[in-house]
Structures
1.
Amino acid sequence: MTASERIAGTVANYVDERTGAAKWMKKNLNKVFPDHWSFLLGEIALYSFIILLLSGTFLTFWFDPSQREVIYEGAYEPLEGLKMSAAYASTLHISFEIRGGLLMRQIHHWAALIFMAAIVVHLMRVYFTGAFRKPREFNWIIGIGLLTLGIVEGFLGYSLPDDLLSGTGIRIAEAIIQALPVVGSYLAFFAFGGAFPGEAFIPRIYTVHVLLLPGAFLALITIHLMLVWYQKHTQYPGPGRTEKNVVGYPLFPVYMAKAGGFFFIVFGVTAFLGAVASINPIWLYGPYTPGQISAGSQPDWYMGWLDGLVRMSPPLESHVFGHTISWNILIPGLIVPGILFTGMALYPFIESWMTGDKREHHLLDRPRNAPNRTALGVMSLTFMLIALINGGNDIIAITFDLTINQIMWFSRIGIFVLPPLAFVITKRLCLSLQRADRDLVLHGRETGRLVMMPHGEFVEVHEPISPQKAWLLTQHEQNPPLALEESDLRGVRRPGVLKNKLRARLSKAHAVAIPKVTADDLKEIEHH
Amino acid sequence: MSNEIEAIKDPGLPAHVHRRADTDPKAAAKAERQVAILFLLSALGTITLIASYIFIPQDAFIFFPVLGDTNAHQLFLGLGMAASLFFIGMGAIHWAKTLMPDEEVIIQRHEFRSEDEDRADLIATAKAGAAAAGLGRRSLIKRSLGLSLGLVGLSPLILLRDLGPLPGDELKKTSWKAGTRLVTDPGDRPIRAEDLEVGAVAQTLPEVGEGVHRKLSDIGKDAVLLIRLRPEEFNLDAERLSWTHEGIIAFSKICSHMGCAVALYEQQTKHLLCPCHQSTFDVTRAAKVIFGPSARPLPQLAITVDSEGYLIAKQPFTEPVGPSFWERSS
């Protein structure tokens, strides 16, 4: 027995004698985690969050969240003697006078961008593989909550330095609040402690950014992970993997070493980016004043789609009985995002309603085998992408020598035309891929070897695929659409006909598939 | 459908293939050395970090081909930190992948639904609890509880009332009054018509007394842009034309869409463009919106000159400046 084995045993004994948790710990140390690169996406989000907590704490030691006006007398000469808020001055102080301060600021900002990107890509993985299905609907909703909070937290974070760029972002947020019917101007005055910009907003969002939201994140992430733990991870289909088992590696030591190691890699890469890639150089923007602006004002990427929607909105405003309703702000700024996020949160329930499927699912879908879901996902992404492109229309116009008007009109039309087109194309692609799978199982793999038959005909030799591969391509379920009769056995129309009609149609659209190969098909082909 | 037909059989988990390090002690020793080297690289990274912190001055710059002139202190601090973290991770993962057992393990799942008996017990307990509380029967308690819970939600709203003052008519008025001089921003110098050449633009604010502090919230409403055209270039009605002075026209600089500063003036086309959402305003037609999301022109400030020849406001703005709000009447 080596020393480390003896220590491990002693520790296990020590803990059990004080908690009686031997059984529980044994079970959990042996817990099996399936291995796949796409399961690391959520981990990247988690690790970025830890990096954000660490680097953020560092920044709070010197950041002064105050809009009190000061005269700058720091190391950065171009701004010497300028009036600015204490928040902006202390951000300059961190950047130029604290050793490692700029590095930490850049690590913090990069980690925020990576955090949001990892959440989005993780969400895409979960969506396209159907991992949100029963019993994981709660975790899906928590995930959407984390995404939403992440957007808010990121926005508040980059608003704190009170530079010209972020101040402009706050101005836009204020305009959205102010546009709310009836209560808008009241809410704006409460939030800002008076007329914009006032001196209250930065200190207030600071508390929200460093205390309230991180607390909410910690709580939600804890529940998110506990549910993953308790429900056990989903796994990709394959030989030997079923709905009833988990195939993978034990937590201790393999998974712990890999996951722990991966944390350091994510941190290392973020630190590398912070070291070499300048981000948000606020000293170039100058302090915020509402009378000035710089061209090419861009929010961080996860806000870009929202800005793009606002940019492409037509100039609609209603004036009714001495009141103004700004549709050009409310629709792109609140109504459309509200519908998108609510729809996304409810999607697991919508799909289970469409398919009538109330069973547990632990084996993931290959995206092609759920053409409707995959197409809907690609459609939503197309929508977001066009909005995002329009959010950078000024930058794109300069880079590609186009006019802003061209890009704006492309977006205004494209946002209606391209997503449905993406849906149709994706659905067809999925069905084509299913057809290709079917061919592969039936006729085997093309070897590229041509053989001349005795009668002169050339044929390509096909090689049968392995039983493992054949299983992978045929293991999925193909369920018939719901049979929802309009009238019951006695010919009486059922209540809720319209709802049922819609449900039947959706269910039918969802069940479209190329029939998978069965053992009978294979037998039949052998006879030929 | 195909479910009733005989499906292709699951061949089961493929046989485990051993790694070289599992069978060849030499390969295992090599893997161990590689892990150790990775951990040592991490240690080297930390040493780089410490050395950079102490020895590289904060204002030392160094030229790198892709990065350009870079602050050497921050760069080496960051590179050291990156290496110290990254190689720990690489070492741990290399260790797990080459030397820790890689034999796949299978465990069984359990269905989350409890046994029927337990479920029936739970439902009975829940029902019994609800019956014992008797909310269904005691409607007085139910209603009064509903009332008090509803009211208790109001207290945080009440307590947050002092977050800010009521808007009153703050959003509707600016500091501009009849006779207020326009002064340059920055500089606070009054402006004569001849200071502006044709085609020039100036950012201005209302004049304040010596030593008076300008609040940002005032600038956020008062910022005005002066543009000088040739008088014949205007396409305005008689009233709006009378608001200009010798080809100088004044607009609120605060965008009528979302309040950004409308700062991009295109001399050729005489268009003002807001960099935030690209609302485009035609200066010759009283800042009419010709493109983008804004629904209203920029408010025009009527200007003239005082006895000393300096530009002044003829009257306050005739409409609220900045983004729309519910109480705005037009």
2.
Amino acid sequence: MSTLPIFADESWRLPSRGRVGMFSLIIGESGIFTIFVVAYIYYIGRSVSGPTPQILEVPIFNSICLLSSSLTIVLAEHAIQHGLLKRFALWWALTMALGIEFLAGTAIEWRKLIFEDHLTIRTNLFGTTFYSLVGLHATHVLVGLVGLTLVMIFTLAGRVNQGHAGRIQVLALYWHFVDAVWVVVFTVVYIVGK
Amino acid sequence: MADQTFPIPGAVDATRPRAGLLEWLHSWVVTVDHKKLGILYIVYAIFFLLVAGAEAMAIRIQLAIPHNHFVSPEVYNELFTMHGTTMVFLVGMPILFGFANYLVPLMIGARDMAFPRLNAFSFWLTAFGGLMLYFSFIGGFGSYGVGNAPDVGWFAYAPLTARAFSPGHSTDYWALSLIVSGFGTLGTAINIIATALSMRCKGMTLMRMPLFVWLLLVVSGMTLVTITPLTAAQVMLLIDRYLGGHFFDAQAGGSPIVWLHFFWIFGHPEVYVLVLPAFAIANEIIPVFSRKAIFGYPAMVAASVGIGFVSMTVWAHHMFTVGMTAVGNAFFVLSTMLVGIPTGIKIFNWLATLWGGKIRFATPMLFCIGFLFQFLIAGLTGIMLSVAPWNWQLHNSYFVIAHFHYVLVGAIVFCIFAAIYYWYPKATGRMLSETLGKWHFWVFLIGFHITFDTMHFVGLLGMPRSIFTYEPDRGWNTLNFIISCGGFVQAVGVLIFAWNLVYSYRRGKAAGNDPWDAWTLEWSTSSPPPDYNFAVDPVVRSRRPLWDIKHPQDPDWKYER
């Protein structure tokens, strides 16, 4: 069919499509977060009624947990690359535990805000922007956790091996992104906005 | 199916042909092949092109004479909202992704897209979004009774979209279906980037990629940061409408102006997302029909990337009349004018490609020449509108409508027609009829100029956009009647085109692998290409691999660095 001649073989390397795809998704997701962050910053101090951001407690323990999960997932990536499956499962489980702790911490924080401070998404502009920005991030943590759980199930079923290191690194990229976004959300909501 | 013979007339074995038809349909539904998905995208877009075109016709009938009662004001609002939304999201985006799907893997010598299943998923998301939007006509309970399409304009300005002013669900249909098709768009954009960067055949370095692929790569990169702000803003709108949020609620401290900014942060780059694929098509067709390599390939790449970046900084030129600071006005005036520089580079490069060439005026080339001329005028009215004081006079008038239809129809639709005439032989194995093609071109060209040239004048005379009717003493009567007549001439042109598509599919003459004597890889395989695209993985050494094969004594790679 093709009449193209074959030239001398040369070394021909292309970037991994998984990584390119994930980086593209991350750029797209950054667009969504940018809009919500800009809206949050623009609306700081524009609520016409209380409560104000002063009621927020800075979630330091929560943030430490989420950010250190980036470290544990790197250790897990390292382990799978060297074929150390047990060590991989351990670090991966710890990453999941830290992610779950973060979500639980957010749930406790929101429970206090809703039932003690009477701040809901419809109370005022602060409530609208706070719950949507922090909620958007929490949704991303949840999606990341679903991905992590799938890998965990396959690992426990004995279906994961060294050959999957590349794919696991692509998933880990997403988790790193979720952590990095938290740095921005934390700064905007709990430092700049308070 | 056609080969079936029935021994006894009337005694039809009904099961077998039906099974064949079902199998055929099933093969299209479950396909992950980039060529089939590309065709699905294009057929889907052409279907909605006819639907939104019919909506435009209804608008023009209503405006043909003053105090007309062809449609009610409510229906009129739905018509222009759905016309705009459909043309941008269900015609422009899907057709460009259709061409990207079909051509990018073939042009870079790949077997398929980087993520074939994501590709199918993205198409069906887009298709579902379109169906959901149109379901609103019967399912979207609104303030006027049962069956209500969105009626808030394609830009859905707050606070018109608030619960109080837009009761029922028509605005929700608008937001939800665009969120759904937006995710489909995001998926395809990711796929095109990964394909162009990671699936190239041996020797296809970035600077040897066909310009079509380069521009689609730029477009996809822009799409990533363009469609997502719209998704975010629509989520905010839904939070306002369903959860009682206050993002765009001025009484609670929110700001409708913020919606304007968010919408146009999407909306203006979106125009470039739509027009760059038109440039991409011209980049392929003009050199082939001038019998010359494209002039200034690196400048073309740089200009495209430049347009990509600059287009992100111009959005508020849609908002001069909203009232901004002098600094804000000056910034957006200058950034908008800056787009003219890379765009001008492109126009000069196309002219230089034509210059001294042995030009063949086949139908694809005719449409590209029309595009060059009309895009120049569209660019010039664009520069006029970028000047803030001029804009204060003419914003939201028919002058603006004329300007952007000159881009969307005069440039983009012309290039899409050119692309269909150029690549139809590759996809079907049959040439489109040149006679019908020339009729299509001239009728459509004349209709286009009658409509949209006249629209500039009625705009200068002060006719605002989106009005349902007008008083007879405003001096707009004759011009509006001419505009409406031109619309019907265009419709005749489009019907000739539709007939050509159907007629040539059965009767067109066989195309062969390379009917245009072209130079990019898609013409090296059969028409239509086999499932596997290339029997042997191609290897390229220059920007025009087929030229190298056809002219072994004078190959391009001797001269390209």
